[in-house]
């Protein structure tokens, strides 16, 4: 079935989306975190529906996209918190090293 919506060839758009989803699914084994794997599995489910022409309604798609966006945002927030925690730990390590060096210099100057 071929149709056009506001100048967009739906078959070409579906093929483009399917290709992008297949690329995303292909990298799934290389992903480490459970959140990323879950995101890829959701994508694979969407790809299967796309290939079977059993796509959900627009409202369901929008709700699913919002859910994925919220998950992605939570994942980004988690990454930011991990980055901040590591930066703080590095600052503490650097300050300890600086104090130790200062103590060593003080001991050397006393001798």
Low-pLDDT segments:
1-5
Q: Order of strands across the biggest sheet?
A: 1-2
Secondary-structure content class: mainly alpha
Shape: rod-shaped
User: Secondary-structure element sequence?
Assistant: EEHHH
Calculate Rg over CA atoms: 25 Å
Q: Tell me, rounded to a whole number, the average pLDDT.
A: 76
- What is the percentage of strand-forming residues? under 5%
What does this structure look like?
The chain has 111 residues and is mainly alpha-helical. The chain folds into two domains: 7-55; 58-111. Helices cover 80% and strands 4% of the residues. The chain contains three helices and two strands, in the order ββααα. The protein has helices at 10-26, 34-52, 58-110; strands spanning 4-5, 8-9. A two-stranded antiparallel sheet has the order 1-2. Strand 1 (4-5) and strand 2 (8-9) form a beta hairpin. Helix 1 (10-26) packs antiparallel against helix 2 (34-52). The longest helix is centred in the last third of the chain and has 53 residues, at 58-110. The termini are far apart.
């Amino acid at each position: 079935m071929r149709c056009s919506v506001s100048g967009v060839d739906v078959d070409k758009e579906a093929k483009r989306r399917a290709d992008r989803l297949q690329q995303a699914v292909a990298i799934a084994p290389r992903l480490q975190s459970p959140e990323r794997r879950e995101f890829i599995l959701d994508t694979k489910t969407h790809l299967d529906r796309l290939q079977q022409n059993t796509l959900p309604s627009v409202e369901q798609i929008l709700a699913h996209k919002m859910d994925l966006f919220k998950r992605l945002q939570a994942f980004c927030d988690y990454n930011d918190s991990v980055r901040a925690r590591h930066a703080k730990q590095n600052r503490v390590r650097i300050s300890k090293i600086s104090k130790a060096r200062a103590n060593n210099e003080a001991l050397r100057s006393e001798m």
